[in-house]
Fold Cytochrome d ubiquinol oxidase subunit I.
Amino acid sequence: MFEHFDAVVLARIQFAFTVSAHIIFPAFSIGTASYLFVLEALYLKTRREVYLELFNFWKTIFAVAFGMGVVSGIVMSYQFGTNWAVFSDKAGPVIGPLMGYEVLTAFFLEAGFLGVMLFGRERVGPGLHFFATSMVALGTLISATWILAVNSWMQTPAGFGMNDKGQFIPVDWWAVIFNSSFPYRLVHMVLAAYLTTAFVVGAVGAWHLLRRTAPLRAYTMFSMAMWMAAIVAPIQILAGDAHGLNTLEHQPAKVMAMEGHFESHPDGAPLILFGLPNQAEKRVDYAIEIPKLSSLILKHGLNESLAGLDTIPDDKEPPVAIVFWSFRIMVAIGFAMLGIGVWSLFCRYRGTLNSNIWLQRAAVAMGPAGFAAVLAGWVTTEVGRQPYTIYGHLLTSQSHSPIAAPAVATSLIAFVIVYFFVFGAGTFYILRLMARLPRDPTPELQEGPIRTQGITPGPAQGGSHAH
């Protein structure tokens, strides 16, 4: 039944499905590992039990997410050999060592200290345990660095030559790793991971505040998450803007698709807020636009010219509709995160951060927002690179293995079924863990007044506050 399907399209769908299922776990793990580092640091500094209790609560969730991320990532490596063997053969001399460095540095570092972090608190001293937590957090960041180096090289290849077999070979490893888009992508992705975790933590804290199951622990989580949203969301928007300017320089067709600019605008391009891209007719139907604003954003001048897709050959254009909408979803979520952060600052100033149920309900609703933004961002990045796997040098249609469509379709169906059962069960288990925040052990902490600074315990607690 799949004989008439395109094997390349099926392979792309399969990789898109597996990478989408995979990326949400590393994005969450990177942020959670750093959050655990902060919690343990605060506990060692203040000796307040609430930080240790939250550390123990989130370390279990981190361990499950980390395990699912490792398993889902291994599957993607096999696809390079099964569905994309030509790509692996041609690009292997460059991307192979980078992937190997990720295993040798980041994965071994994480695996070596993960057991100590999870089970070693009673067996090693507090200093060594904190060091283990630090190494796990560092390992997640190093892992992101190598993976982003690989992806950035595919987006903006540099430092390579070609041998007589048509393979990409490294000439300058510094140029390969620190290619022109790498710093922007790394910063953008790490900040996205921190925001993803912040809104998950904030949603869990808000959920328990609404249910009043553990006011001290819930408020501590919620307050910390809202600080992260208020501080990091505007930084992420600025980082995204810088990333966009870099993309305009090195991948102009991607930005043209993001903006929906089928035509060049020599006297200033409009910002198309919404519309229906019509790639066949080369226009955006029902466009709602603001004149010249795109030129102001991208070129910092109202009358600056912007080239359109009419300067790109039809067979080199990315799928405009997908890139156009995925970009808008990502941006909309980013501004929604900024709105939550600003709202939380206002409530904090008014002394109602712990009692504003509408903010808490909004935080619960925004819990999955980080994952949606990460997926939308990756769709924008990867689909916008089409029709290339290595931008400007190797077409996707030239990267596929000589494998029949029915074989690809069979493995795709198997992946979908297995992933929904295995990772669906894992996600359900994580949600159950999040819903089981233990109650505060001291009745006074549940009954005492809750103020902007935190919960004010009774005299027996020494008047300490949760910030």
Observations:
- Residues 443-467 have pLDDT under 50 and may be disordered.
